[in-house]
């Protein structure tokens, strides 16, 4: 997963076009991509009509391409007839060179952390204005949150996102703070001055604690992962149920995991540290 400059969120797609409309000017690849792009964090599962409307493709074209994508494994069909991104797409995304090395180094340590804290564990990177989960280990006792592999959220709204934002260039932070900052719950931080203060505290303390920013009853704790030249390349997070334990009790194994991953990636500051 590459780190890119700030990009605006995709605008809402136009209504479905008739068969003779401009979709005929699209290449076959563009039509396939138009279908895949309609899925996002707010639209994980869609009906055929919804895919057609959001992609701007006719219903007949959508029906044909969705069938082909489902046969290949790019889309999956649920029992109620709706569609979601399939595992083949997620598997391909995991093969991105930088993300693949990060996951290969991190996975054994993430597994140990998952066993130690008995909670949801995530490994995240920044992609544009979002945080993206490149690894996610769920727990039966974890908080009911959406942390699926490949899922993404705005940086300001998650623990790992705040860590990555806090260590991003000042110009990038300023662009995010200019907003708009999306609110998911009453506790989502959407005031620029408050978020700026929190990011400064994250840099000072070395970790982030985010309570019920996206899901009621969930508390996220996150720390940075460093790569060569000690640059922040990812963040490791643990999500617990509010009241199940304190964030401070999770920090020691979480920090140890981040240092181990950083050491595996060649971070100079992690050498010789446990």
UniProtKB/TrEMBL annotation:
Residues 1-21 have a biased composition (Low complexity). GO terms for molecular function: DNA binding; DNA-binding transcription factor activity. GO terms for biological process: glycerol metabolic process; negative regulation of DNA-templated transcription. PANTHER family: HELIX-TURN-HELIX TRANSCRIPTIONAL REGULATOR, ICLR FAMILY (PTHR30136), HTH-TYPE TRANSCRIPTIONAL REPRESSOR ALLR (PTHR30136:SF24). It holds the Pfam family IclR_C. This is Glycerol operon regulatory protein. The lineage of its organism: Bacteria, Bacillati, Actinomycetota, Actinomycetes, Micrococcales. Residues 26-87 form the HTH iclR-type domain. It comes from Microbacterium album. May be an activator protein for the gylABX operon. InterPro entries: GAF-like_dom_sf, HTH_MetabolicPath_Reg, Tscrpt_reg_IclR_C, Tscrpt_reg_IclR_N, WH-like_DNA-bd_sf, WH_DNA-bd_sf. The keyword Ribonucleoprotein does not apply. Residues 88-267 form the IclR-ED domain. Residues 1-23 are annotated as: Disordered.
């Amino acid at each position: 997963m590459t780190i890119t400059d700030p990009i605006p969120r995709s605008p809402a797609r136009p209504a479905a076009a008739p068969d003779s409309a401009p979709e005929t000017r699209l290449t076959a690849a563009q039509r396939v991509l138009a279908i895949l792009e309609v899925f996002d964090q707010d639209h994980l599962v869609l009906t055929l009509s919804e895919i057609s409307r959001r992609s701007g493709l006719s219903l007949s074209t959508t029906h044909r391409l969705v069938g082909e994508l489902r046969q290949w494994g790019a889309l999956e069909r649920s029992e109620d007839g709706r569609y979601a991104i399939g595992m083949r797409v997620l598997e391909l995304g995991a093969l991105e060179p930088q993300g693949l090395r990060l996951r290969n180094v991190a996975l054994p340590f993430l597994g140990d952390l998952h066993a130690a804290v008995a909670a949801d564990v995530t490994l995240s990177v920044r992609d544009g204005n979002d945080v993206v989960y490149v690894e996610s280990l769920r727990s039966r006792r974890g908080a009911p949150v959406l942390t699926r592999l490949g899922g993404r959220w705005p940086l300001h709204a998650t623990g790992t996102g705040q860590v990555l934002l806090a260590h991003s260039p000042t110009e990038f932070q300023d662009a995010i703070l200019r907003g708009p900052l999306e609110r998911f719950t009453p506790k989502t931080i959407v005031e620029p001055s408050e978020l700026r203060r929190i990011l400064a505290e994250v840099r000072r303390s070395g970790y982030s604690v985010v309570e019920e920013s996206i899901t009621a009853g969930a508390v996220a704790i996150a720390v940075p992962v460093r790569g060569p030249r000690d640059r922040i390349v990812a963040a490791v997070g643990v999500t617990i149920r509010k009241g199940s334990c304190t964030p401070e009790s999770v920090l020691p194994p979480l920090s140890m995991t981040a240092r181990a991953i950083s050491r595996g990636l060649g971070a100079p500051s992690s050498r010789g540290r446990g």
